C-alpha cells in the first residue's frame, strides 16, 4: 500500500469518526464548563441559554446520525457521556448554597442522582467482567428518570432567572427523586431477569471442543 493510499484511508476513517453528529456531541461536552461558570458568576440568563442550546444539540445529534446514516461506535459512547457530564455538573453546581440562584437543588437529591449512576455503571462493569454479559439496554423508566432530571435543572435555572422561588421547581426535584429511586430498583430486577435468560442459552450452546469432537467422530 502506497503512502497516498494510506493517507486516504486515514482520512476516510477520520471522517467516519468526526461526523456532524459526533461534532455536536463534542460541542455539548464543551458547553458543560461554560454552563458551570455562568451559574457560578450569577449570569443565570446566559446559563439558561447554554443549557437549552445543549438540549437542542442532544436532539439534533441523534436525528442527524439517523438521517445521514452516520451512526458510529464512538457516537454511541460519546452521547450518554455528554448527557451525564451535563447533568452531573448541573446537579453539583445548583446544590452549592453560595451560588447566587433562588432555587437550589437539595444536596441529598444530588447525592442520590449521582449515586444511582455510579452504582449502575460499576454493577454493569462487574457483571461484564465476570460473565461477559452485555445486554444493558436502558429501560423506559430510565429514560423517564433522565427527562425528569433534565426538568429539575431546567426549572431550577428557569425560575431563578425569573427571580423567585417556585414550588414547581421543588416538586420537580421530588418527582425526579422518586423516578430515580424506582428506576434504580427496576434496573436491578431487570438485570436479574436478563441474566437468568442468558444463562440457559449459554448452557445449551455447544462448546467449541464438543463441536470439534463431533466432527472427528462423524
What does this structure look like?
- Residues 3-15 and 208-218 have low confidence and may be disordered.
- Helix content is 82%, strand content 0%.
- With 218 residues, it is mainly alpha-helical.
- The chain is built from 8 helices and no strands.
- The chain has 2 domains: 1-82; 104-204, no CATH class.
A few lines on this structure:
This protein is mainly α and 218 residues long. The chain has helices at 3-17, 20-40, 44-67, 73-95, 107-131, 140-162, 167-204, 208-217. The radius of gyration is 22 Å and the shape is globular.
State the helix count: 8
As residue ranges, the low-confidence spans are: 3-15, 208-218
Query: How would you describe the shape?
Result: globular
Please summarize the sheet with the most strands: none
- Structural class assignment: mainly alpha
Radius of gyration: 22 Å
Counting structural domains, the number is 2
Report mean pLDDT, rounded to a whole number.
79
Proportion in β-strands: under 5%
Q: H/E element string?
A: HHHHHHHH
Overall number of strands: 0
The separation of the N and C termini measures 44 Å
Helicity range of the residues? over 70%
Architecture blueprint of SSEs:
Layout: H1 3-17, H2 20-40, H3 44-67, H4 73-95, H5 107-131, H6 140-162, H7 167-204, H8 208-217
Helix pairs in contact: 2-3, 2-4, 3-6, 4-5, 4-6, 5-7, 6-7
Amino acid at each position: 500500500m502506497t503512502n497516498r493510499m494510506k493517507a486516504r484511508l486515514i482520512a476516510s476513517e477520520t471522517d467516519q469518526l468526526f461526523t456532524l453528529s459526533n461534532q455536536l456531541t463534542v460541542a455539548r461536552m464543551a458547553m458543560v464548563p461554560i454552563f458551570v461558570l455562568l451559574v457560578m458568576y450569577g449570569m443565570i440568563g446566559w446559563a439558561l441559554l447554554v443549557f437549552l442550546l445543549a438540549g437542542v444539540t442532544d436532539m439534533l445529534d441523534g436525528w442527524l446520525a439517523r438521517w445521514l446514516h452516520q451512526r458510529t461506535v464512538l457516537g454511541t459512547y460519546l452521547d450518554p457521556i455528554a448527557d451525564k457530564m451535563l447533568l452531573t455538573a448541573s446537579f453539583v453546581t445548583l446544590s452549592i448554597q453560595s451560588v447566587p440562584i433562588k432555587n437550589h437543588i437539595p444536596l441529598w437529591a444530588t447525592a442520590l442522582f449521582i449515586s444511582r449512576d455510579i452504582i449502575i455503571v460499576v454493577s454493569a462493569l462487574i457483571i461484564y467482567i465476570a460473565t461477559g454479559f452485555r445486554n444493558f439496554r436502558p429501560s423506559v423508566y430510565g429514560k423517564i428518570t433522565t427527562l425528569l432530571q433534565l426538568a429539575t435543572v431546567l426549572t431550577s435555572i428557569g425560575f431563578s432567572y425569573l427571580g423567585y422561588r417556585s414550588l414547581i421547581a421543588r416538586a420537580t426535584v421530588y418527582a425526579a427523586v422518586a423516578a430515580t429511586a424506582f428506576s434504580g430498583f427496576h434496573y436491578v430486577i431487570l438485570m436479574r431477569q436478563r441474566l437468568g435468560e442468558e444463562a440457559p442459552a449459554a448452557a445449551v450452546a455447544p462448546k467449541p471442543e464438543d463441536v470439534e469432537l463431533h466432527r472427528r467422530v462423524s
